[in-house]
Description:
Elements: H1 2-7, H2 17-26, H3 32-80
Helix pairs in contact: 2-3
Amino acid sequence: VVTLIMYFSITPGATGIAEGGFVIMFARFVDQADIVSLTFGWRFFTVYIGMIIGLFIFYKEIFLNNKIENQTEKVKLNKAL
């Protein structure tokens, strides 16, 4: 439900909308003292962990594969000479 609301929110990245929806949905089940830390934990584990993993994959695919391709081209040029 929160993800559906996030897709149709008018804020960039659903900033504030996702957290507010999460708080509204779970306020009955969680103590008031714990809802803020739970909301930030939820956002961290659902969004930012994926971004961090994606960052490592992006780095590997773009920069490390580019180095391998450059080395392969150098080997081909040396064989051609």
